[in-house]
Amino acid sequence: AQRVTQPEKLLSVFKGAPVELKCNYSYSGSPELFWYVQYSRQRLQLLLRHISRESIKGFTADLNKGETSFHLKKPFAQEEDSAMYYCALSGFSGGYNKLIFGAGTRLAVHP
Amino acid sequence: EAGVTQFPSHSVIEKGQTVTLRCDPISGHDNLYWYRRVMGKEIKFLLHFVKESKQDESGMPNNRFLAERTGGTYSTLKVQPAELEDSGVYFCASSLIPGQGAYNEQFFGPGTRLTVL
Fold first, then answer.
1. Using one digit for the tens of pLDDT, what is the confidence trace for B7-44?
2. Which of A13, A19, A47, B60 could form a disulfide with A35 if both were Cys (CB 3.0 to 4.6 A apart)?
3. Which helix (H) or strand (E) element contains residue B98?
4. What is the mean pLDDT of chain A?
């Protein structure tokens, strides 16, 4: 079965602390993994995708096929990082596939 | 460019009534997706259009839900009759067909919050 698991509903840290939002997936094949973010009063937007292997707003995520994980990390959290983060996967099949989302993790960064 | 737009932003209706949600994708995006987030749960796929054709409607909960995409442009999602469990936020997303640009990135609308009383 295709599934994305985000075990933490809420992650609360202080500004400057490291952040790791966990994501594990289950998929029989070669999925593409994404992190989407929704800031307060804004729409859901793409933050990262594993194929691009880039750092956005200081966030990175590495696909670990052995552990079927795609954890999102940032070494020093900022208050503006406070948002809802969703891990998602899409089956690699010509780009037509739906996104399967995890339940989301709310990141709260305190001053 | 305005991005994906959805109308209305909020809708409050009574059980048994009908509601129609509208989504206007980004111009030139042939892929159009509908998703739903029910309170406290994950965002779930409902269906996918490629132009005016339904590519995948495996996520539609039941036959009270009807989606259309006239002429391959905007899409509507009608719920008739609405039930209490239909309450949630309905998102629309659009993307290009591969080969025309960014691979598989889906751009989301702001969502329509539906409350069924």
1. 999 999 999 999 999 999 999 898 999 999 998 788 99
2. A47
3. none
4. 90
Dihedral angle of Cα A48, A29, B35, A51, to the nearest 10 degrees: 20
Q: Which of B74, B73, B95 is nearest to B7 (CA)?
A: B74
A94 in reach of chain B (CB within 8 A): yes
Confirm or reject contact between A104 and chain B (CB < 8 A): yes
**What mean pLDDT comes out for the span A30-43?**
91
Nearest alpha-carbon partner for A35 in B12, B113, B105, B36: B105
- At B106 the three-state DSSP class reads coil
Contact list in B for residue A94 (CB cut-off 8 A) is 98
- What is the tens place of the pLDDT at every residue in A70-95? 999 999 999 999 999 999 998 655 44
Residue B20: burial class (beta carbons within 10 Å; 0-12, 13-18, 19+): middle
Q: Tell me: pLDDT of B114 over 90.
A: yes
Nearest CA in chain B to A43: B110
Phi and psi torsions of B86, nearest 5°:
-80, -10
Record: contact B104-A95, CB cut-off 8 A: yes
B1 — pLDDT class (breaks 50, 70, 90): low
